[in-house]
Design brief:
The chain has about 290 residues and is α+β, with helices and mostly antiparallel strands. The protein has two domains: about 10-95, Phosphorylase Kinase, domain 1 (2-Layer Sandwich); about 100-280, Aminoglycoside phosphotransferase (APH), C-terminal lobe (Aminoglycoside 3'-phosphotransferase, Chain: A, domain 2, Alpha-Beta Complex). Helices cover about 40% and strands about 15% of the residues. The protein has nine helices and ten strands. The protein has helices at about 10-20, 55-70, 105-115, 135-140, 145-165, 205-215, 225-235, 245-260, 270-280, and strands at about 25-30, 35-40, 45, 85, 90-95, 100, 175, 185, 190-195, 200. The radius of gyration is 19 Å and the shape is globular. It starts with 9 loop residues before the first helix and ends in a 15-residue tail after the last helix. Mean pLDDT is about 95; it is low at about 1-5.
């Protein structure tokens, strides 16, 4: 984890210079897999990891496509982007106005509208529920070897089930890819879609799995809230035959994310281990109480 008090600024300075802006008074907002900086004029600079140029291009295209189709989303600056700085793709966005996590109703309404959109005229890419899980587990050096091996075996089994042809109850559609109330937020003007990094083409079930897992696994959503979500969206993904496989993939993503960052931040090690223990049956049955990190 980069020290947010004294972060390296070389890529930021080069990227800002490329568009005629100054990085002098930029403030680091979040320095994790991607860096987020705020410039004094309300511009957010997103610096992605090397090798993610295609994803950065897609994020900009998706944001503009959503706006053109009446779905409020984060707004990229009106300039040619991404730009390259130290081998990293960099994009520039208007700062999201004051906001809070969206409600269950917001989430259901936005997903219903999103899944009804026609496919765009650019390549969305296909959903990969397991993107970067393998490297995250390899980086999870604070976990006991037996736990890490168990997670790697689970990753293999779930990925094989997905790759052999998981039937869905609907045709592939544009999906957000990481649909939860922290990414579909509420502003004074209504719901707004954020974090387009995982936007892709895939089964709508993947977007719905997140809320189901937050109800059935982490305990972050009550049963009444989940019933409301299903009613407003018009479908309960837990009744689908493939629910267990994609729910397992979502749980594994949440565990591997925590375990990877716990290797660099001791404050997260207890939560990371707790999540592993839950999956391994050491803390009773679902739902558990998983605490958010970062």
């Amino acid at each position: 984890m980069t020290d947010i008090a004294h972060p390296p600024r070389a890529a930021l300075v080069k990227a800002c210079a490329a568009i005629g802006a100054s990085a002098r008074d930029a403030v680091a907002l979040r320095l994790a897999e991607n860096e987020h900086w705020r410039l004094p004029d309300g511009v957010i600079v997103r610096i992605s990891q090397p090798g993610r140029w295609t994803a950065a291009v897609r994020e900009v295209h998706v944001a503009r496509w959503l706006a053109a189709n009446g779905v409020r989303a984060v707004e990229p600056l009106d300039l040619e982007q991404p730009v390259e700085a130290d081998g990293r793709p960099v994009t520039f966005w208007n700062e999201v106005p004051r906001h809070e996590h969206g409600s269950i109703a917001d989430l259901a309404a936005v997903l219903r509208a999103l899944h009804a959109l026609p496919e765009p005229d650019f390549e969305l890419g296909e959903l990969d529920p397991f993107v970067r899980i393998g490297e995250r587990l390899q980086a999870a050096t604070t976990l006991p070897h037996s736990d890490r091996q168990w997670l790697l075996d689970l990753h293999r089994d779930l990925a094989e089930a997905w790759e052999t042809g998981l039937a869905t109850s609907s045709a592939p559609t544009p999906i957000h890819g990481d649909a939860w109330p922290g990414n579909i937020v509420r502003t004074a003007a209504g719901p707004l879609v954020m974090d387009l990094e995982r936007f892709s083409r895939g089964p709508r079930e993947w977007d719905l799995i997140s809320t189901a897992v937050r109800a059935r696994t982490t305990g972050a959503v009550t049963e009444d809230e989940y019933a409301q979500f299903c009613e407003l969206y018009g479908y309960d993904v837990t009744t689908w035959d493939g629910f267990g496989i994609l729910a397992g993939a979502r749980e594994l993503r949440m565990v591997s994310y925590a375990a990877q960052h716990a290797a660099r931040n001791p404050d997260w090690r207890r939560e990371a281990q707790y999540r592993v223990d839950c999956l391994r049956g050491r803390h009773g049955h679902r739902p558990w109480k998983w605490t958010g990190i970062m």
